[in-house]
Predict the 3D structure of the following.
Amino acid sequence: MSATLAVDMISDVVCPWCYVGKRFLERAIASKPEIAVEVRFRPYFLNPWVPREGISREEYLITKFGSVEGYNRGNNRVVEAAAAAGLSYRRELIKRQPNTLDCHRLILWAGQIGQAGTMKQRLMELYFSEGGDLTQAEVLVAAAAECGLSAEEVRARLATDADVDTVTRAAESAKEAGIEGVPFFIFGGMLALSGAQPAEYIAEAIERAAGELAKRVAAE
């Protein structure tokens, strides 16, 4: 029996290239059905300066990119990449920029029932495709319920500091490790890829890392 290859995806739910990169990772895994893979979603704070209650999208774009128009001009490439990957990116619907700490808490909790990937995808769809306000607790609660979590339990936990330190430490450790751009993929703790690489590149990395892992297991 072959060992399962751990693939860590370090990313944020409001990062458009992470939205695309997750889809490319899924395609890569599907193209290598003979390799057992476990994806682990690791948190990253793309905009740690955004307050917990969030800010308007316009204020965010002006603060970070100088103007809404300037952002949109430079952002067309990722909109096109999302469409080519079969994803909807409707930036005109986004009205509020969230701090993503609570989103990452949801992904952590969903991971406890094996639904981290589903939770992450739902949050990204809400943000990029549906104009969902991820600063609103009830939006998060509804998303969690769709992914198999208890709405009542999530509502109660969001009102506390449960796992705030856990998520924050994990996100900070990624930056301390020198990861300055996401998505960032680590394959079996051996190989790394930065950026939303094409599915075939990710598949090659999976194959190489799985080969190295098999050698290590055989040598034990």
Notes: The CA atoms of residues 10 and 42 lie 5 Å apart.
